[in-house]
Amino acid sequence: xxxxxxxxxxxxxxxxxxxxxxxxxxxxxxxxxxxxxxxxxxxxxxxxxxxxxxxxxxxxxxxxxxxxxxxxxxxxxxxxxxxxxxxxxxxxxxxxxxxxxxxxxxxxxxxxxxxxxxxxxxxxxxxxxxxxxxxxxxxxxxxxxxxxxxxxxxxxxxxxxxxxxxxxxxxxxxxxxxxxxxxxxxxxxxxxxxxxxxxxxxxxxxxxxxxxxxxxxxxxxxxxxxxxxxxxxxxxxxxxxxxxxxxxxxxxxxxxxxxxxxxxxxxxxxxxxxxxxxxxxxxxxxxxxxxxxxxxxxxxxxxxxxxxxxxxxxxxxxxxxxxxxxxxxxxxxxxxxxxxxxxxxxxxxxxxxxxxxxxxxxxxxxxxxxxxxxxxxxxxxxxxxxxxxxxxxxxxxxxxxxxxxxxxxxxxxxxxxxxxxxxxxxxxxxxxxxxxxxxxxxxxxxxxxxxxxxxxxxxxxxxxxxxxxxxxxxxxxxxxxxxxxxxxxxxxxxxxxxxxxxxxxxxxxxxxxxxxxxxxxxxxxxxxxxxxxxxxxxxxxxxxxxxxxxxxxxxxxxxxxxxxxxxxxxxxxxxxxxxxxxxxxxxxxxxxxxxxxxxxxxxxxxxxxxxxxxxxxxxxxxxxxxxxx
Length: 629
Description:
38% of the residues lie in helices and 15% in strands. The chain is of the alpha/beta class.
């Protein structure tokens, strides 16, 4: 080895992996219940908790608040919304469990100091039916502080990247990883593990190029660790074919939610036509989902992409029209009109300054005044995020009171099919639209459930020393490989003995983009393309054994790429298995271009066998536990 790495062993009861909203929720809840029973809770995060996770930069709205106490909505209302947005493919029990607990997470945020917008009567200001406006630049900082206080600094390990699960006799008993700042190899031994390491960005080639390469809407540091960890543990996975392609403000990826919901803005083509109206007949081709109000996000995308395909772009968000319409009520009172216009203008800028500062900078750099002229929007590259509008993740047990007696329940809420391995946030599948608050609530559910599991199975499994030693060798092999061969060529970036992380990432993104329905193929694919991608991924996987790293920073990038690859392969296999087009606007199977309710209103699940190193892909039924139609 080019350097010595100290082995640090940490023994705990519950290991929480991740530092985002789900992990913070689990930390608060597990610490509360654990302390009553002497259960030790430890958290490890590859970043720093105050700015870790999807809302690390900030957020301008809490996107899930059901309002049960106020009687605004019911759990059934929310299930119907989620299920229709996912074209019928969602878990009633998981969505319901989040919906009935999420409001309490929002109330906790407010107690901890998060500023929620209030009207003159002291009521929350809604962005839309389910969303609340917040001043959220420090949203994650506030939530992380509560989690840190609950855990205690001695139980938190930051800047440590987890690479692999520890599996003994089919049970998850810990994890291993390395510090990205020090020469240390970490071995975490636990009675239960909670996975909350975020979704996946960077599987598909981004639209941004040059200096902007790597710019994304979703955090670029979410690199598939949740998917890798659960798959590698042997957990059953679900909805791996469901990627999310959001419509965002062009280039800086600023979210559009506040403009559609709070400002009531329209999106139009270049001629000023509202394509949701001019193309409404297209929605009839997508069954009852096309008639849903609001329309599923993928169908809204689909209509916009048809405009672009026919040369009617670019698409524009009519910001100037929306602001003027909201201020119209003050016409005739010049002073009040100007004041309202100024307030709306400030809110327009704050929307991005709270969460996507680069969008505000781009507006300023390109002389865009939102109250004067529209701003361009377009579809991004695909992402894998089950906490938002995607659904890919682990297949987890529902709660006993909702799921018992069905295939959705096997003992402990939020536990994967691997005993002792729990999941929340982007790590869980088939329960989309939980967003930040729902992810926090789901983390709380998982944390409490994991404590119950530990009390029922209160034994510490011994980890064989040879397993720990072998994993250490594998983790740091990229450093040794570089040192061994770095002088073979005059340029260390070009060497026949190894491949550097960025080169590997570019190859993966090119394959997925061109053959598996990325931006350059207009989100379209077919069997021939998928077969070609599968062939090329075999070559890439072989080359993955030759990934090299010059330092700890590149070692992190090596393992991020290894994790990202597994998400790519799972997605490819699931898309190939589902022989229909269920989510036009996210991807389009040109060889199976229609919705097939009879054969494919189901979950596509999959599992990797750690013993045989083989994948199985199969169907699971969609159960209507709440009779939502």
